[in-house]
Amino acid sequence: MADPASVPFHVSMTYFKIVFPLALIMFLVGADEYVLSSILSPMGESFHVEPARVALLVTAYALPCAVLGPLFGALSDRWGRRRVVLPSLAIFTIATYAVAAAPTFPVALLARFICGSAAAALGPNAFALVGDLIPPERRPAAMGHTMMGLTIGFIASPALGGWITEQFGWRWAFVVLGTCGIGAWVSAALAIPHRSTPEGEGAGTEVESVAAGVVRAFALRGVPAGIASQGLWIGATIGVMAISGEIFRTRYALSVSETGMWLASFGVLTIAGNLLVAPTVSWTGSTKRAVLLGIVGTWFGIGGLTLVPSFPFVATLVSFWLWAVFAGFGGPALQALLADLAGERRATVLSISASAMQLGVVATTFFTAWTFPQFGSVGVGVVACCSFVLSFILQARSSGSTA
Fold first, then answer.
1. What digits encode the pLDDT tens for the residues 189-232?
2. How does it sit in the membrane (predicted)?
3. What are the pLDDT digits (tens) for 65-84?
4. Burial environment of residue 208 by CB neighbours within 10 A (0 to 12, 13 to 18, 19 or more)
5. What top-level class would CATH report for the domain 217-397?
6. How do the domains of the chain map onto residue ranges?
7. For the chain, what percentages of helix, strand and coil (3-state, to nearest 5) are there?
8. With contact defined as beta carbons under 8 Å apart, do 293 and 280 qualify?
């Protein structure tokens, strides 16, 4: 009989008990950022602030979320997931309520900064916990289900926030999110074990500095290519998404509501892609091949949308949907691959990759803002597809595991 102490601790926990709170955490991280897209004007009117300044509420959340991730990832690898995730989730929830109660714009801005700082610890650690607690054979599917929470947060929060604002006022949108945060904290407290890194992992990390941990993470085989793909592929994909609605609207003379409807279809098919992670990994034979397939499919999808302006509407729409599905399963597959490669430095690696993704978004939106007015969608497509090709080459030549 096996020694009970040697039995992996995830075997005593059900799949749902682990994945549901992690997906809920990711939902909150996405929803708290994107809910502002539909309620900035009412918030500006409430605080007597012009629209350009109200947009700082988005920056106040996104900036610390991108910059502080590696710090919290390294601390999580040293101290354990529970010691980082639960306090961060509590701070996130309190700060969300603080936005709802903010009497002035500076107070709301500070609360959003605190909320974004806490979110920096939540996203990467949610994926790291999937790597810690889910057996390798089920890990790609679990990554997809966890990522689905983020996708739903992106899609649902603007509509939900807008409806709540119309019915009760914008402050109640944050009250609802804060209440969801309480539920997420309770479910996470029940799911995350006190020994929240697998037995034998984390050895030697207590005595090293955070900076040394980050440097050693980059030395792991296959990790640099995976992190680069997060920026060059996933980051670029999100960056192009920001301009895709304008491509549809100007090319086919769509109304705002029609454009919004087709953009919503992208979100639905991205969720479908999240659910296809496990079948795709099984079909391709490895997580790495699933990532490479995702890059290729995204290349064809965005290429069809941007590089062929003469495409009829149906062909462009099919390309758009192809992009959604392939990115939908490819993104979680890349997270699963990085989690496998990272080992004891899982949270550090995944937090660095999250920051790389944010940098990719910033760089792509910068280039598309310049190329779209000058060269139209073709300029956007050239930038994106060159980025995807480089990501594919780096990933294909990577010496990391292909399991």
1. 888 877 655 444 443 444 456 666 667 777 778 888 989 999 89
2. Multi-pass membrane protein
3. 878 877 887 777 778 888 88
4. middle
5. mainly alpha
6. 12-203, 217-397
7. 85, 0, 15
8. yes
Residue 317 makes CB contacts below 8 A (sequence gap 6+) with 262
Dihedral through CA 224, CA 87, CA 108, CA 240, nearest 10? 20
For the CA atoms of the chain, what is the radius of gyration?
Answer: 21
77-115: buried (b, 16+ CB within 10 Å) or exposed (e) per residue? bbbbbbebbeebbebbbebbbbbbebeebeebbbbbbbb
Q: Which CATH class is domain 12-203?
A: mainly alpha
Mean pLDDT value across residues 290-317: 93
- How high does pLDDT run on average in the chain? 82
Round to whole Å and give the CA distance between 162 and 2: 55
Residues 6+ apart with CB under 8 A from 364: 235, 236, 238, 239, 240, 383, 384, 387
Are 348 and 214 spatial neighbours (Cβ–Cβ below 8 Å)? yes
- Judge whether residue 392 has pLDDT over 60: yes
pLDDT at 12: 41
